[in-house]
Amino acid sequence: MSNPTSAQSLDRTLGFTDLVLIVIGTVIGSGIFVVPATVLTRSEGTLGTALLVWFIAGVLSLLGALTYGELGAANPDAGGLYVYIRDAFGPLPAFLYGWTTFFVIGSGSVATLAVAFTGYLGQFMTVTPLMAKIVAVLVIIVLTVINVRGTREGATVQNWSTALKGIAILVMSGLLLARGHGLSGPDVRTWPDAVTPGLLSGVGLAMIGVLWAYEGWQYATFSAGETRDAQRVFPRAIIAGTAVLIAIYLLANVAYVAAIGPTAVQASTRVAADSVTALYGAAAGKLIAAVILVSMFSAANGLTLTSPRLYFAMARDGVFFRRLAEVHPRFRTPAFAIVAGSAWAALLAATGTFEQLLTYVVFSGWIFYGLGAMSIFVYRRRFPDMPRPFRVPGYPLTPILFVAASGAIVVNTLFSQPGRALVGLVAVLSGVPVYLIWKRRLQSGVRS
């Protein structure tokens, strides 16, 4: 395990609330405003089945959070998941995770959110294609400046923006439940008449889609090295944040059906906006667009706040550009790592290449999420005397179930979209020769 020098150490400035809101804010982007329609459709329009899918996927995510909670409490270092994989399975798979995150998963997600931000901005003003690219890049620049100037500054923006969108979703759900009558309509069915192969296949596809909707809580592990009293705070925060997400997602799904009924929900491509507009008019529907803007800004800020800590850890290990391991003397942030990740994200947003990259590569992230959870078995065997103020309940079943869920996503992609999966795996493995070059330079004492 690494033992960073003080010059390479980040200040511990994040508390329980900060970590909880990082988890919630990074996960909730635009998915909960559009995905429920697809899930209900694949559940053959039965509300109970759809809610069960959301609940089970949330519980599986919670099992992962419990597992990472023990790992983060035992080894609260910057880089989180990268560090766990490195300690358990060696530097190569850890590097491949960092390589993929830097060039595609993390940066591509920021680019996606920034570009989607301009799309919803178009509901309030005319946005030309050129203006859309400029605005997307400006969003990334603003987030970069905020997070370079201080971890506390980035966390404060995350806290306020996440609180705003969380409260907005709760208020929206409450208003839809109060005024809507969709739950008592003739087309409401709680459970299917029979469990058929078609239903099981649809539920399986829906489950994978919902697991994607929950994806993002793992990023909080990158900031464990900046958490105060991390051995106590980190596991509580990542578990609490994931549990809150489950509650928010379930409530919103019920509210949509209450507003317009299950048939209309299935036909909607913008279920949140359509639900609010149906009950409160077009002007109220625009408020949802504003909430989504805040939601996407918050998610992008969460990624900008957390992901660079992974690049920082890689550079500290000598397998990435040395300057990315430097801590800014005034702001006490990994400024170069933040700027580097954001610059690449801005380039992806400006060129539009992130769509192709994410389509092929993002599924591979679940390979590493599964490896991260498997690290707990290696940690317990290899480091039996390591202090563990938090131990995952239900061990070993808890991590095994999460690893199985991660594997299901990967296997489903391999069988359902083999071409996409092959291209994605080739992209990930393209980091192998790069790693060998870095390793050779490190061994010879030459670093960039």
Give a quick rundown of the structure.
The protein is mainly alpha-helical and 448 residues long.
- Report the CATH C-level class: Mainly Alpha
- The dominant shape is globular
Strand content: under 5%
Rg is 22 Å
Give the tally of β-strands.
Answer: 0
Q: Can you walk through the features of this model?
A:
By secondary structure, the protein is mostly helical. It has a single domain, classed as Amino acid/polyamine transporter I, CATH 1.20.1740. The protein is 73% helix and 0% strand. It has 17 helices and no strands. It has helices at residues 16-27, 36-42, 47-74, 81-89, 91-121, 129-148, 151-179, 197-214, 230-267, 271-280, 282-316, 335-351, 354-361, 365-382, 397-416, 418-429, 431-443. Residues 2-7 have low confidence and may be disordered.
Write the layout of secondary structure elements.
Elements: H1 16-27, H2 36-42, H3 47-74, H4 81-89, H5 91-121, H6 129-148, H7 151-179, H8 197-214, H9 230-267, H10 271-280, H11 282-316, H12 335-351, H13 354-361, H14 365-382, H15 397-416, H16 418-429, H17 431-443
Helix pairs in contact: 1-7, 1-9, 1-11, 2-3, 2-8, 2-9, 3-8, 3-9, 3-14, 3-15, 4-5, 4-14, 5-6, 5-11, 5-12, 5-13, 6-7, 6-11, 6-12, 7-9, 7-11, 9-10, 10-11, 11-12, 13-16, 14-15, 15-16
Top keywords for this entry?
single chain; 17 helices; globular; 73% helix; mainly alpha; 448 residues
